[in-house]
Design brief:
By secondary structure, the chain is mainly alpha-helical. The chain has one domain (about 10-105): Helix Hairpins (Orthogonal Bundle), CATH 1.10.287. The chain has helices spanning about 10-25, 30-50, 55-75, 80-90, and strands at about 95-100, 100-105.
Length: about 110
């Protein structure tokens, strides 16, 4: 995969990321180091938010996604399974916004 692409299909992009990772032998590397790379990208995301830098924000979100896709690949799990599980966990969740953050309602 070389050159710029404007593909908007997340499944196709995820597949392309996986192929890119295999071409560079990243798929066989230590997932702990990949998790640290994801944290590094999240730090860049926080920095972009603080600076209100939209271009850097877009880059950081994308880079974070790429690192997480590769982490899933290294762990032998599908990113779509992770997102599906997370959505199924939150889809019926109720709660309220407190100081700009969603706080889930405690069942009981």
């Amino acid at each position: 995969m070389s050159g710029k692409t404007d593909c908007k299909d997340l499944n196709k992009l995820t597949h392309a990321i996986n192929l890119w990772s295999i071409e560079r032998n990243l798929h066989l590397q230590d997932p702990t180091k990949q998790a640290l790379k994801s944290l590094e990208e999240l730090g860049e995301l926080a920095k972009a938010l603080l600076k209100n830098d939209r271009e850097e924000l877009i880059d950081a979100v994308g880079d974070t996604y790429v690192t997480l896709v590769i982490l899933c690949q290294q762990l032998g799990i599908e990113m779509s399974d992770c997102v599906n599980a997370a959505y199924n966990e939150i889809k019926d969740r109720r709660g309220k916004i407190v100081d700009g953050t969603f706080v889930k309602e405690v069942a009981g």
